[in-house]
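In response to the reviewer comment on reproducibility (Comment 2.3), we provide here a single inverse folding case reported in full, input and output, so that an independent group could reproduce the run without further information from us. The structure tokens appear first.
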């Protein structure tokens, strides 16, 4: 299976796992998207404000991008979107806020040449919905559920169109992600119809409780490079991980600040929050592992230079833990001693074990899907990940383990 340079084929024939997306099967309309953006641009005021943003033809642009893939959107449309972005750049921050979400979204539509990981996942857009009426914590929690519900919808629809073993396994794994986020212990139904019914109910409930700005971010942030169904799944999983990393990083930064104030019990609550969030990662990796290796080879060819090794959220956690958080925990231990700080260190050690387990799972999946070829981020690939999985989050705590039970 080789990608044609115009995006028209020969992509695989079917839809769902191993095939193209539903959007690709429906087909795109480049002309309609170009015409709509031209018309909008001709009538757009300067500076661009909320009324003009509300008229922006997001739907035909997204339809086209998802049908052919971002890599094949076409020079004319990409050029138009770039022109709009340049009109927005360089203004005051308040003007950029008035034009939301365009300043955060447009760069990801026009970074075909030389774009990085953040642009691939539209990370600035994912980070953007919080505001005066939407606290960052609520925005991130809503976003996790909305992304998981969108992924579930994608895979359950694919199962309905073309039932098959791997597609079923994937749809069930996606249900597992949303179940975990809802703290729902319902066992996944075995019949496809029952699975679809339960998924539909959960998706509807999620939509009802999701803040409108988060709904918009979820809708706009799916911009795969290819028309392949599996890439849509991959983008959503990476976005879920990125949102998770952000929340884990926020909880651990707050735990560090609490420890600096010697508020050990508060720090323990925050570390428990981080551990609870990290507990979603096995469910997410159960989805990722359904990626067919031959499809991922095509996705990789379209995402060179966009490796998760560039993830700022992931790196922030490792830097924070091995640096100021570990330091604050050791200081609190020296200043206060006692059972509370020993328990805190035990909590951190358990978090470290879960983090390293996540890294080992990632390494195992990498071996299964790409074998021993180098990574798209310029490392040796699996061998790099094997070594990285052995590096603890809290080296100083790992060097002096604490034997106090929780
Ligand atoms: C098909 C599945 C995947 C494969 C084959 C894969 C492969 C790789 C490879 C080869 C690397 C090494 C860096 C490089 O040269 O690119 C890497 C790094 C990384 N990947 Fe993945 N990956 C997969 C899925 C994911 C997912 C879903 C996430 C979630 C965000 C993720 C997060 C990371 C992170 C954070 C790193 C940097 C790790 C470090 O520096 O310790 N990967 N991946």
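Designed residues, in position order:
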């Amino acid at each position: 299976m080789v990608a044609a340079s115009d995006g028209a084929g020969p992509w695989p024939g079917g839809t769902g796992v191993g095939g193209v997306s539903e959007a690709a099967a429906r087909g795109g309309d480049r002309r309609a998207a170009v015409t709509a953006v031209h018309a909008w641009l001709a009538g757009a005021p300067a500076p661009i404000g909320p009324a003009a943003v509300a008229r922006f033809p997001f739907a035909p642009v997204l339809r086209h991008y998802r049908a052919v893939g971002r890599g094949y959107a076409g020079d004319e449309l990409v050029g138009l979107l770039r022109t709009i972005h340049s009109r927005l750049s360089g203004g005051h921050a308040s003007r950029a806020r008035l034009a939301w979400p365009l300043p955060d979204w447009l760069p990801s539509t026009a970074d075909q040449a030389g774009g990085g990981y953040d642009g691939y996942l539209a990370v600035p857009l994912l980070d953007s919905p919080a505001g005066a009426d939407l606290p960052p914590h609520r925005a991130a929690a809503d976003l996790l559920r909305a992304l998981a519900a969108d992924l579930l919808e994608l895979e359950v629809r694919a199962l309905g169109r073309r039932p098959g073993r791997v597609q079923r396994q994937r749809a069930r794994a996606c249900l597992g992600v949303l179940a975990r986020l809802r703290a729902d212990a319902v066992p996944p139904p075995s019949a496809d119809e029952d699975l679809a019914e339960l998924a539909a109910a959960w998706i509807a409930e999620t939509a009802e409780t999701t803040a409108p700005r988060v709904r918009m971010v979820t809708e706009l942030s799916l911009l795969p490079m290819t028309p392949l169904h599996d890439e849509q799944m991959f983008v959503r999983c990476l976005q879920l991980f990125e949102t998770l990393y952000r929340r884990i990083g926020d909880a651990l930064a707050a735990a560090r600040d609490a420890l600096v104030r010697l508020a050990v019990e508060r720090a323990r609550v925050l570390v428990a929050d981080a551990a609870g969030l990290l507990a979603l990662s096995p469910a997410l990796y159960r989805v990722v592992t359904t990626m067919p290796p031959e499809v991922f080879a095509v996705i990789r060819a379209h995402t060179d230079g966009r490796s998760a090794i560039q993830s700022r959220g992931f790196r922030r956690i490792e830097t924070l833990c091995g640096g100021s958080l570990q330091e604050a925990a050791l200081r609190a231990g020296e200043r206060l001693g006692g059972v509370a700080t020993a328990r805190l260190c035990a909590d951190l050690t358990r978090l470290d074990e879960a983090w390293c387990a996540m890294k080992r799972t990632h390494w195992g999946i990498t071996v299964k899907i790409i074998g021993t070829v180098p990574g798209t981020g310029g490392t040796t690939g699996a061998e790099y990940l094997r070594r990285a999985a052995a590096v603890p989050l809290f080296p100083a705590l790992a060097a002096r383990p604490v034997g106090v039970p929780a």
